[in-house]
Each structure stands twice: as C-alpha cells, then as structure tokens.
Amino acid sequence: METTLLYQTQPGIIWDWRVAWDLSLGGLGVGAFLLAFSLWCLADRRYRPLAQTAAVIAPIAVAIGLTLLFSKLGYKFHVYQMGLNLAPTSIMWWGALIQGAFVALSAIFAFRLLFPDVSLLAWLSARLVGWVAVPLAVLTGLYHGVLLAVISSHPLWATGQMVMASVLLFMVTGVAGTLLVHMIRTAIFGARLDEGPFRDYRQGLRPLSLIMLVSTALLLVSLLAWWMELRFGPASDQQALADALTSYGTLIALAIVSLIVALALCVASLLADLRGRYFPAFATALLCVLMLGGGFAIRFAAVLGGQMGSSISTLATLS
Amino acid sequence: MSDKRYAMVIDLHRCVGCAACDIACKSENNVPVEFHWSNHIIETSGTFPDTRYNYIPTLCNHCENAPCVTNCPTTAMYKNADGLTLHDTDKCIGCRLCQLSCPYGVIWFNKEDPHQNFMRDSEPAIPGGTSTGREVAQATDAPIPYYNPARATTYQGIRDRGMVEKCTFCDHRLAVGEDPACVVACPADARIFGDLNDMESPPSKALAEHAPRVLQRDQGTKPHVFYVRNFNE
C-alpha cells in the first residue's frame, strides 16, 4: 500500500493569472524599452518611428502589469505601507520601487521621443533619462525572475533557470511585441516616408533578427536545463515537475512548439535577408505572434504550474 | 538581542491525535472554521495487518529564518524580541507572498469576510430547541458565538477580509504569563512550551533529553517547533 498523506492547507491557486500577466507584460515592457533606447542611440534615423513604438509600449505594458498586480492585492488600501516601511530583505519591496521608477522614467523617455520639440520636460535630456532607465529596466527584468526564484518552498520556481528564462523572455517578447505593434501601426496609419520600403527596412533590422534568434535558442536551452534540474533533482523537485506537467503539460508543449517554429522562421528570415530574397511580412508577423504567445504561455505555466500540488509529500519528513 | 527564545517541543510518543489542540486554538484565537492555525498531518502506510499511522501536529514554526518575514514587502510579518513570528494587520496588503514563502502551509488568507457561516446560519438544529450561531452571537453581543475578546489585546480579534492570519504562539496569553491554548488543552501533555534561553525550562530539558527533529530541515528556516520521539518509542 502506498503512503497516504492528509494535510489540510488552503485550497486553490495563491497567485493567479493576473500575476502571470504582470510578469509577462513587465518583461515585454522592459524588452521594448531596451530596444527603443538601442534604436534611438545606435540606429539610423529611419528607425526612429520603431523606437517611438517601442518607447510607448514600455511604460504602458509595465503599468498595465502593475495594475493587474494591484487588483490582486487582498487589502489594496494598505498599499501605501510599502512606502512607509523599509523592507530591504523583500524582493517584492525592491521590485515595487524599481518598477515605479522605471515606469516614470520610461514614460518621460517615450514623451521626449514622441514630442522632441515640446517645451514641457525639455530640460530633461532623453539620453540622460534613457541611461538612468536602462539599469532599472535590466533590474526590472531580473526582478520578474528573482521574485519567484527566492520562494524556495516552490521547487519549480527556486532555480537559476527561472531567472535566466525571465531575462531571455524579456528579450524575446520585447522585440517581438514591438515589431508586431509597429507592423499593426504602419498597417493602420501607414509607414512614415522616411521609413522606406518594408523589405529594405527589414534588412536593416538584421541585428534584431539575430537577437530574437539567439534569445529564443537560449530560452529553449534554459527550459531544457530547467526540466533536467527538476527531473533529476530531489523527490520534491520531481514531484513539483510532475504536478506542473499534469496541469499545464499541454500548454507547455504548445509553447515549446511555438518557440521552435518561431526559431525556424527566424532562421528562414535571416537566410532570406542574406540571399537578398523577400521574406513576407505576414511571416514576420507570424514569427512575432509565435514568440509572444510562446513566451507568455511559458510565464503562465511557470507561475500557475509552480503552485500545483504542494510539498506535502516531503512535508511530513521529520529530520 | 532577543529577551526570550520561545519554542515548542511536541512529544510524538505522548500525542494521541485527539486534535484538542486544534479546537482549543480555534476557540482561543477566533479562527474561522475552515482555517487551521493548529493543524495536523495524517500519514498512513503499509498493508494490513502491517500498517502504520502517523499523526504529526503542525502549527506556525516561528522560524528563526522565517521566509514569510524576509519576503514580506511591508514588514507586516515580523519577528518580535522574544523570537515570535507575528503579523501586523495594519500593514498587511494581502499580497500573499508570505503564504507562498511558507514551506509549512500554516498561513491562511481571508478571501471572504471571515465567519460567514455564522452570519448565514439561519436554521437552528432543533427548531424551538436550539439557537442558530447568529442568535448566539447576538445574544452574547459578540461577532461570533465563540468570540474571545482577550485575543484582541495583541492582534486583531477577527482578521479582515483580504488579509492573512496565522498562529502567534498565543502571544496575548504569553503577555500575561500563560502558556498557549494548545499547550494547556493537550490532555497528554505532549506539547512542551517555554524559553530556550532558559536551560532549566521544560523545552530545553526535553531537547537535551531527546534528539529533536523538525519539519523540512532542508529549507533552512530553523523552526522553533521541535518534535521528539515517536509513537512506538
């Protein structure tokens, strides 16, 4: 007869889809901001509209994520307590500070990019704001992984791969989300004259394709490493992996397939660019959708799947 | 530097699994029916007639390295000078990170207004013979039939919706020199409570006499609830 354990803990998911969306949108925003700043600093002037799109996405995505997180709080009226009480040992406390500052600075950066000639905030150099916001963006991206990784009672989360995947996810979804939104924007409002034909424009973005390719490949590798660490880890890790796969196995499989197809499309687009062939716009859009969908699905499965089952199997172990 | 270092030793050889501790805790701390500040793990194994039944009482471990305290973003979860892990409802935002951080599943979240079962209780068990829970509460001018006002001296008497709550080692009783309710209620004296800084205290002696064990030692939380002996020892 198998050992049967009975222990009544509070049923249900503790952090629901809102937290998963907060982490996903936060990652998207961070990636978009880094793209915006890179394009603005390094790229040709014709990529300014793309930089503007990315800059606008950044504060909006992070702010929506934070709003969703706020809606999840049980006692919202006490949220000011985070400002009144110093909790330097709490990752969430640091995250709130960093994200708050990031949203403000990235919003100013977006405003300066969209309206460079408006006198309001003209005294604030976009370059200076951008340089201050870059480390905050990186820290925000790291925070989204570390927040879960420090919760050692949840084996699926308490891994280095959690942080690694978080960083790679913001690179993948930030670039893919920006490209997709920009394509939608140009499809609706038309491309600006200085952007030139889409085909030439795309070829100029080859570094972005490379970033997406490398990030997606590394993301898949880190997911494999994540699986291996849990699969061949202690009993509690194996149990956590089995619980997550039981509930979210299909979603995880779909996410991985999406990322693999996106990776293949990325390679195809790079090859097409190198050979001077046309890579259709819809394929680029599909690539972005697959990366966004795959990335979001991974976050969703990680956040919710990490809370499946419990450590009851090991809880009863006295030592 | 802590003044005291409160701890509890649970002697599993003496424990009979009656759950009097659980009931005493509910009554003392106005704990909702569906919450279990004082709880227990039941483990059954083997094949008849060679079967085993283990009963492990659980409660907040008042860990020295409490992850709920480390991770709380508002310091609502905190350690007091006596080593108790306590919760300040005035600071709690209901993010539930403490609940996720706790490896022992001993923190509870009020998704709804607590004690709704009494407010909804409109049918007496014996019409004309017994009162409903709501009637009892109204007659005694209390929020719930078994309300203990003493609980409110150090912690919110009944915790609000949207907040977590947990065992406090009955800090309101310790403040007046009494042991926690679960310790007093145990008919087998299986719960031994006291100050580990005092080498002559009952838990210090128990830990010196028996090899102590804790739940999930690998979590590194340094629990202050220890277990000694087994049923068959």
UniProtKB/TrEMBL annotation, chain A:
Subcellular location: Cell membrane
Main location: membrane
Record keyword rRNA processing present: no
Keyword Amino-acid biosynthesis annotated: no
Transmembrane portions of the chain: 20-43, 50-71, 91-115, 127-151, 163-184, 205-228, 248-271, 278-302
Gene Ontology CC: plasma membrane
Entry keywords, A to Z: Cell membrane, Membrane, Transmembrane, Transmembrane helix
Topological category with respect to the lipid bilayer: Multi-pass membrane protein
Alphabetized PANTHER family for the sequence: PROTEIN NRFD (PTHR34856)
Similarity-based family: Belongs to the NrfD family.
Stated name of the protein: Formate-dependent nitrite reductase, membrane component NrfD
Organism: Halomonas daqiaonensis
From TrEMBL, chain B:
Record-annotated 4Fe-4S ferredoxin-type domain positions: 6-36, 51-82, 83-112
Molecular function GO terms recorded: 4 iron, 4 sulfur cluster binding; metal ion binding
Alphabetical keyword list: 4Fe-4S, Iron, Iron-sulfur, Metal-binding
Any Pfam family matching the protein: Fer4_11
Name recorded for this polypeptide: Fe-S-cluster-containing dehydrogenase component
